[in-house]
Amino acid sequence: MTHDHENDARARPALDFQEHLKRLDAAGLLVRVDRPVNKDTELHPLVRWQFIGGIPEAERRAFLFTNVVDSKGKTYDIPVALGALSASPQIYAAGLARPVEEIGDAWNEAIANPLPPVMVENAMCQEVVETGDDLKKPGHGLARLPVPISTPGFDAAPYLTATLCVTKDPETGARNTGMYRAALKATDRIAVRMVARPGGAGGWVHWLKYRERKEPMPIAIAIGAATPIVFASPQKLATDLDEFAVAGALAGQPVELVKCKTVPLEVPARAEIVIEGWIEPDVLEPEAPFGESNGYVALEAFNMPMRVTAITHRKNPVFNAIISQVTPSESSVIKKVAYEPLYLRHLKSTLGVKGVLRVVMHEPLTNLRPVIFVQFKYGTPQTEVWRALHGCSAFVAGQGKFCVAVSDDVDPSSVDAVLWSIAYRSNPLQDALMMPFRRGVQGAQYGSGQSDSSLLIDATRKSLMPPLALPAREYMEGARKLWDELGLPALKTPSPWHGYTLGKWSDTWERFAQRAVKGDWEANGLETLARQRSGLEAETSVTKVEG
Ligand SMILES: Cc1cc2nc3c(=O)[nH]c(=O)nc-3n(C[C@H](O)[C@H](O)[C@H](O)COP(=O)(O)O)c2cc1C
């Protein structure tokens, strides 16, 4: 093997979830907790603190709990990983073996060049198999898994969260994978919640077809698989695109699949744990309350009970959970890094919008979907800006309720900067548009059939403006060095942090400023003395008078 090939191999994503955890550990991105931690009351709240406790995003860590107990005093021999998929973009990027800046390219390349999966006979995920009546014995089946409670105090059950739910279209055989929450109900029964509306979960679309045929739907839920496979599950992909093929392209090698033991489906051979079973076509069961990613508790609704027929796993599996609910969370990071490149691609390539530079989905508390900021090159025609605003608001149902366009000097990842732009660069009567006929927020708690609307705002800079009144970059940089030398408290770098010109700036004003910083202000005074006039009102613009 040549040196280059070795480098290639190292640059590939890990082949299984435990290898990914090892890499996170080696990169200093994993915290191991060996003391007993209660999965029902302590585990999620502990990791929640790193999302709400003011820690910078890049300092968030994955957690591995090796000594998991529950409220009944039971000790589990399976560790739990939380935050290991996407506590931060850095952790997600480690899962793709790429730098953060290349995540968007990785997705766009993989979607364009899917790599079909291959079948294998013997699989790690089936080293241990439990089926039939064994699943019903007390402490067996699902009770063997250390499934944590996500929102203690509100959730009605421990939930499987980092799920890879595999189903098949009974007519075409096309496969779908989705990340759907699933509540533990009995040692051999869970309730799966799939979004049930046009554009909803792929698994729900399949279930409708089984219902039509009056046949039960086979389903397999993998927990803990190679990160590209898990990342492809919540990604918004075309329905006819096999997520395993996109995952193979992300991984740089085909995903290995194995036939399930008790259902006619295939699952990732290197998964940690697989739950196999059937969903009846005509019976639903109350599921939830469960803290949802929109930041509220989803209330009870009738969803799909799954009769578990097998639990298979590798010899020493790790259980993977994901932390969702109020954003930022693992669930908002996993979507943000993957959805933003898709929006940009949609605007640039599908709609052919000129001048669009960046799309940012707002994350803290709002949960990504409702608020979207789009950045444009200064001078982009207003018609293009509006095509993009409409495009953002229409691209995905339920996303882009508030869309705001800004210019290239405004950082769309800073809400303060966007509000600054709205405040000074938009005239609401001319630059804002309200549109009816948006679908209301989905969920049992909101009722059905509610309609909503959208607000689009063009807050781009439409004309020349005077410079931003912060000291110019070189002076702020020099002063920063001085600040550090003086040992003053550590600084963050907000945006904007230095002044810059915005078009309305003359040679005279530039000359004045340069003289002033050299201490030659009296020369400026001599010049303006020669320009004194009488007969004018105070505050008359010099440009108006002198041209
Ligand atoms: C943490 C997390 C939890 C999710 N939970 C659900 C869920 O319970 N039900 C659902 O339908 N979608 C859920 N989603 C969204 C789907 O995974 C996502 O829409 C995905 O595109 C669905 O794939 P599909 O369109 O192939 O069904 C969740 C996403 C994440 C990241």
Q: Write down the CATH class of the largest domain.
A: Mainly Beta
Structural class: alpha+beta
- In CATH, the topology of the largest domain is named Pnp Oxidase, Chain A
Number of domains: 3
- Catalogue the ligands: flavin mononucleotide
Oligomer: single chain
**CATH homologous superfamily heading of the largest domain:** Electron Transport, Fmn-binding Protein, Chain A
Sheet having the most strands: 10 strands, antiparallel
Total beta-strand segments: 26
Shape: elongated
Distance between the termini: 72 Å
Helix content: 25-40%
Strand content: 15-25%
Alpha carbon gyration radius: 28 Å
Named at the architecture level, the CATH assignment of the largest domain is: Roll
Mean pLDDT: 94
Low-confidence stretches: 1-7
Question: What is the helix tally?
Answer: 16
Care to describe what's here?
The chain is α+β, with helices and mostly antiparallel strands and 547 residues long. It has three domains: 10-321, Pnp Oxidase, Chain A (Roll), CATH 2.30.110.10; 351-458, UbiD C-terminal domain-like; 473-546, no CATH class. It contains 16 helices and 26 strands. The strands form six sheets. Strands 7, 8, 9, 10, 11, 12, 13, 16, 17 and 20 form a ten-stranded antiparallel beta sheet that branches. A five-stranded mixed beta sheet has the order 22-23-24-26-25, sandwiched between helices. Strands 1-3-5-21 form a four-stranded mixed beta sheet. The protein is elongated and about 100 Å long. Mean pLDDT is 94; it is low at 1-7. Flavin mononucleotide binds at residues 161, 176, 178-181, 193-195, 201-203, 233-234, 236, 322, 324, 331, 334-335. The site of flavin mononucleotide has 20 residues, from strand 10, helix 6 and helix 9.
